[in-house]
């Protein structure tokens, strides 16, 4: 069996947060990636693999190593990693420094997909496109832009991704 | 003044259809592109220009020529054209055959943006990404994929874009 | 078995219109009433019965008689009828003139439920409340208001329901 | 000037919670009541007054007294109070025990209005209807039902409102 055109590695983040109506707070139930791909009428062969469902502020170095290991291990050469925005740049540096011969695009969302006003679908569409079109390397796709893994940071005041100064 | 990073040419299509609650039917009011870019937290400099707001089944050869002329005239080298899906492949052939030294990506939606279940945000995100990442040429971005202008058609039975056989 | 607290008779109307993405037009697939009741966390025992799924401009006198007959036949004394807004007042007159000893509330929507901006959930909530709280009689619940069956009309210019002058 | 047909007193609760995309948590920005009334095409004269925007778990006895005082003071005889669900029954008892000669309906939502899957519009529609149709008294409108102020509780395990046993 040949590999899918693209693998999506799910790690959680705002992207996948749901509202727990009994507790009145946000939590992770399960990923919405399959639903989002269906809504986007996405027809490229995609393998979705959930590695973890966590807030990226809680991500450990072991978990970043696990993401890198998975990128190395899977047969696909084009990979999208969904990730919380708060530490996306850190995971990008771990994965990017390994210089794998694959195109790896990290993306996320500022607002949960389950909210009406989410940027999730837009970001997923752009990440999947960048993953197909760009040469090997590790990138961050946010705000309609694509950043190199070693030249990106989230501006905490504006919530916008930008180049490192 | 230097050109924006990207120009979006709006021609209408399902993308921009609204529901007319007095007449009980779909119609064009105005484009939703600016709202969609805001929702996607898009931060690349984008110039949005509305050429027409029509159903692509009603598009004339004069209007296709107008789209091509506009692609040629504008200063930006990266262009997204929003377009009805029914005749997107025809406009792609008109624009693509001109062999402009620009990256031009046509996209659209199967379901209006104003519907909850639209593929519009996903397609717009992917089109903007492909327009930035691909070399000069004319493409169709639908279903998470990117097709060359001379090798794409909409399958009328499934509503899915595919290569010409 | 005792009757449900409330019966909802579905006849179609804008309420239940879906977008046919292959044909690019609005159509009826199936009713969204069960989904709407679930979304509203409605916990009164409700029996949902689909009589027809039509645009109310196409409703015949035979079909209005069928609605009246069903209201008479069912065991529930509290009934909501979902209906297209264009001829809701006509059906209200047919049902109301029969002077059944039941509380019957017709309601509908100006925008399909499947659109993000629908008034459907609001109208359904108000109709279910009026059906429980009002004495026997036939009413139209639209725009947050409740009208007697013989003193209501839809203003074609504004799309708003009002008393007959 | 004669009073509006209905006054809505806003106190916050899940109803009005927004997502803070910089902090990644739920918070209160402003009430969505006017937007919800517009979406519901509500055409009864409504006066909206924001008393507070708080989580009902944080509501003090002074604030409950303020709600009661406001119900007494305003000229309208039909009042809807939007309220967090966690202590709605407590405020209902404070207001209800005062035996005002007005129809007062407390309502809320299990899921924020800004989420796609909110029960807010349904509940608001039902509360506005009950407030118009019921005799003087204090009520809780949730789950499509209407409860007397002294015979209602939120079941913490199911999130559903029910009679006190």
* Shape by Cα distribution of chain A: globular
The main β sheet of chain A shows up as: 6 strands, mixed
Distance between the termini of chain A: 45 Å
Stretches with pLDDT under 50, minimum 5 residues of chain A: none
Q: Beta-strand level of the residues of chain A, as a percent range?
A: 25-35%
H and E order of chain A: EEEHEHEHEHEEEE
Alpha-beta classification of chain A: alpha/beta
Oligomer: homotetramer
Question: What's the helix count of chain A?
Answer: 4
- Give the total of beta strands of chain A: 10
Most extensive interface? A-B, 35 and 35 residues
Strand order of the largest sheet of chain A: 4-1-5-6-7-8
Average of pLDDT of chain A:
95
Radius of gyration of chain A: 15 Å
Overall helicity of chain A: 25-40%
Care to describe what's here?
4 copies of one chain form a homotetramer. Chain A is an alpha/beta fold and 165 residues long. Chain A has 4 helices and 10 strands, in the order βββαβαβαβαββββ. In chain A, strand 2 and strand 3 form a beta hairpin. Chain A is globular and about 45 Å long. The model of chain A has no long low-confidence stretch (mean pLDDT 95). Chains in contact: A-B, A-D, B-C, C-D. At the A-B interface, helix 1 and helix 4 of A face helix 1 and helix 4 of B.
Key features of this structure:
homotetramer; 165 residues; alpha/beta; two-stranded antiparallel sheet
Q: How would you summarize what this structure contains?
A:
The structure is a homotetramer of 165-residue chains. With 165 residues, chain A is α/β, with parallel strands linked by helices.
